Amino acid sequence: MVEKHYWFMIMFGFGCLIGLVTLVYVVRRAFRREAGEIGGWELGGAGTRIAAVTRTTLAEGLRAKVASGFALLILVSIPIFWLTADGDGTIKGQVQMFMSYALGFTGFLLALLTILFSCRSLSIEVASRQIYSIASKPIPRWQILAGKWFGVMCLNVFLLALACGATYVGTRAIVSRFKQDLAHELELRGGLTPAQAANAVAVLDSVKGIGKHGAESPIVYAMADALGQPQNQVVETLLRLSEPTRVNLRRFDELRRQVLVSRASVSPKPPDLTEMVDERYEALKEEDRLPDGMTTGEIRKQIKADLMGDYCTIPPGGFRQPWRLQGPVPEQGSDYIMSLRFKVHVGGQLPAVRLPNGLTLEDDKLLCMWIIGDPTTPDFYEVRELFPVRSYEEFEIPVSCVEEDGTVSVMFGNIDPRRVDAVFDLPSGLEVRYGVGSFESNIFQAFLAILIPLTCLASFGVCASTFLSFPVGTLIVMALWAITSSMGFLQEALAVTSEYAPPDYSEFLFVLRRWIVDAIGWALAIGDCNPVDQLREGRAIGWMTLWANFWKFTLLKGGAVMFVGVLVFRRRELASVIV
Hints:
This protein is an alpha+beta fold. The protein has helices spanning 2-30, 46-63, 66-84, 91-127, 132-135, 141-188, 194-202, 218-227, 231-239, 243-259, 274-286, 296-312, 439-465, 470-485, 487-493, 508-524, 531-536, 543-570; strands at 261-266, 313-314, 323-326, 338-342, 344-345, 353-354, 360-361, 365-372, 381-388, 393-397, 407-414, 422-424, 430-438. The chain folds into two domains: 31-171 and 440-570, no CATH class; 274-438, Jelly Rolls (Sandwich), CATH 2.60.120. The chain contains 18 helices and 13 strands. Helix 6 (141-188) runs antiparallel to helix 10 (243-259) and helix 13 crosses helix 14 (470-485).
């Protein structure tokens, strides 16, 4: 182990030396003494000049066919994703896969385009001396760089808006295709007239009430009202449909409520175990039962892990004391739906069991009992059902069981007769979700969230182009982008995650690695949210999150990088000013 540490220190020092030499070279090249520009910080007429440079930059990109090639690739890929997206075979899976592929691939392509375009525009003009036609005019250097940046971002905005619009249209097209297939099958198998089938399908967009399975589903009630038929007759009609269509009918209701919306969430706060850790440690010390060969930090860490495990574990037949989650003040009305999303773990594999009463417990499904609200009042809501383990599940809860101040009381009972412990990974393994907006607002927020990292990449590229050639600047910015995109892997590779942390956090090597990795991550980060995953799960990105990212990455970091680029560019002698 000691030899490995010495070997790591040698290689780490060698890597730092190479990085330092590269940094010194870049800084010296950036700030080498030249005549450069004198003055040139005036603001008068800046808008007109920046707009002119922006138009020139866009025209240059179109002539170079860089933008046209990426635009064509985006326009071709999205219809292909629309045709091939299948997911889990249901309409919900199709929509989620299509949105993930369409926007994820578009974000990747636009990041590449931003790096290539921003690094190319200015450096190529300097190398080919085309910059003389601009620099020889009375236009400040900072306005040239601002125009280049705006030219890159105008192209990004246009292409990203095109991709988001195509994603929205494609999503609605998948839904429309499902409705057409459902109406056709209601006529063919269900025996409804075309008018009745159209009414039954149209009512799906306004289904209200808690989502349930079988004859108690609100879909049955909504169709019964639309068709003017009793509920049992509607159930018989739906049973005549094919199994995939019935499954898709349930999944469409989930899609409408859980994906094509904008929802926020609240989770239980982790408990403060400091006092309990102190008490147990002192008790072990008084009883002379402290483990041998372990430091104080290791013992306290083990005690905290045991207490947290007890907090998150519900033994067989046991009931968890209620988690109290502080959510929004409820809006009264049957169309305001909240839902509970959770993931429960068990040790090993659960075998299928048939109970004496005829109930069959399927394999890897746990019989759970959930009580939402105060069980001493008539407004509480109870769910007793089999739920798959080790995967996220969700069920809806009525707003009537939420307290007036928005507090949601959640109690869990482990009533499975197979006698296994139920373990929750808190706080991410349990949350209450509630609607805060529409799908249209969420996809617009996703558009803005994808755009923010591109603003940082454009700043890096424009700054690099002020003193580096096109190939070198592109290589460096792409390397930085690759590093910031794989920070999780880098943390694992350098063993600086919490799993590798020493108990007392005193190991010099670990602290040094963690500081360096954190510094790299802070310096190169271009965004801290994942809009594609949030959109596919119906999670609201939030205006506060967007503003925090815009201020932190676009204004602060992007502005600082552009300011450095202006300082560098002002020191370069390009051409004499014509007065």
